[in-house]
Amino acid sequence: MSAVTLTNIVKKFGGFTAVHRMSMDIPDGSFVTLLGPSGCGKTTTLRMIAGLIDPSEGDITIKGQRINDVPIHKRNLGLVFQNYALFPHKTIAENVAFGLKYRDISKADAEKKVKDALELVQLPHVSDRYPKQLSGGQQQRIALARAIVIEPDVLLLDEPLSALDANLREDMRVELKRIQHRIGITTVFVTHDQSEALAMSDRIVVMSNGRVEQIGSPEEVYNTPASEFVSRFLGISNILPATCKEVNGSGLALELADFGRVTVPKERAPNVGEAGPAQLVIRAEKLLLADKTAPLDDRIALDGVVEAVDYQGQAARYFVRVGGHQLQAVNMIDQRPFQEGTAVSVRFRPRDCAALPGAAA
Amino acid sequence: MSVEARERRQPWILLSPALTAVGLLLFVPLMFIVVYSFWLRTATGADQAGFYFDNWNEALTDPFYRDILLSTLRIAAITTIACAVMGYPAAYFIARARSNKALLLLLLMLPFWISYIIRTMSWINILGVSGAVNWLLLNLGIVDEPVQMLYNEPTVILGLVHFLLPFMVLNVYVALEGIDISLEDAACSLGSTRWQAFREVTLPLSLPGLAAGGLLCFVLSAGTYITPLVLGGPTDAMFANLVFEAIITQLNWPLGSALSLMLLAVLGALVLIYNHYLGMAQLMKGLG
Fold this sequence. Notes:
heterodimer; A: alpha+beta; Rossmann fold; CATH 2.40.50.140; 2 domains; 6-stranded mixed beta sheet; 8 helices; globular; B: mainly alpha; MetI-like fold; two-stranded antiparallel ribbon; 2 strands; MetI-like_sf (chain B); membrane (chain B); ABC transporter permease (chain B); transport (chain B); transmembrane (chain B)
């Protein structure tokens, strides 16, 4: 059963359309991420589910019930904000217990629930402190405890990790996923951070300019981008203009300048159905730089020259020229990175590539 | 000079102009007033220097002064409550306005461009016997003769509220502006109605602003003498009018000094009590 369903949701702010005819199903118990750059409509969508703003058109249902006209305080949702939004004048225990006051729960039960929630977020000892006495990561855990203690139908997370330091953010990512898994709550997560989305989600909804670009599992959106936007937004991609010569049983035969013919597997190009203009997508980490003398394997090998190197410690990002194209390659460093100006062999497997229909935008 | 010594000296260098001004223009004159209050005004009109308790005795025991002090505090309290009740919603509206915030704040500051005395006197043109309200009532045939609405305690309070409301609105506005708007959203998502969220979250967090505005309104109205002079009747004198009367009209500086110190002591004590219960440290806890 779907926990949340959006049907043809439109949101207009004056003359500006923030969300265009959005439809999606969020299965019960799943972790769904709305991913996109700022201004893509992801937060607006979340706020419409929460009831903080009303959709201009379309229906929102939660557990099969249309909730467009149900005010926020009757929706039974857990909401976690980017800036935590803890009540600064209340202790941690009072913060967590806040939502229980409006539910028919005895005092003893409420105390137990607060205690359990604090244990779930691994902060059982802070109940008498005030929010300001906690670190950012701890405050975010408390915000999570406050949202889940009311046993909401859906947990809504609005960029909950983006105010944290990089290291803490990765820890919280694991922690958040652990808690979500443990209580099995349907979760809608909003982020602009692709690695968060890839690491945490069951399904990712990639959005751009108020429209859904693609809905799919992390592997699907990463490996089989449905549009140029998706392939550029997730990871680093080389997107090259090509011509699709033929579509046959083994795949799509693409032809492009300086590369010759590259045959992309059909499942990696679900949107290309016929011959005509197309684009070849090669992920930067699938493009391997090698010494010109290295033995050939099943990869296609092209001659290139390293134009710039961005050293990243365990890996390096190379800008490499192959004929008329400047390509990006992200490779693990074996001994030492290639230097600028080095002539290299640029290699990739056609089965690691994807294809998009149409000419480059 | 060592760096440490220079750093220690720096705050004092920066503070010195203000400290000099406060010292010479406030503290020294205040000491003069303290000294004056122990002098004695003789029958000839000359002041007799010395150490007499006669003025203090009169100021502290005469029920006339006590009654006016109490009615001054009552008027100040009513004014403060009226400012809070009228100012809070206005401040809330401005703080939550999506656009035109700067314009609304400008409109709030606009009255300060006109002299307080002129603004007070404007009520004579509105409520006076030949004022706008009476003109309307007469022309509509509601009354046959102009109604005397001015020169009583309610008009004094009206004038004070008119003068002090912007102070209250600004103080509450600053407090509301510092409250994260998502706190109310969070409260609502947890099951409280908008009104409950306001009572549980926004109101307590804005109390420091309300308290600061209240203190300002109270002290300023308790110390006023222009408003009762312009808008009050003969029996509506407030305590500062007594000081004015003693010093300017009767030229009795010793008695005026004792009376003004008495008002200062009462208001000072109230501020200390206020500070104890709504202490600044306590006030800041919710914000910062």
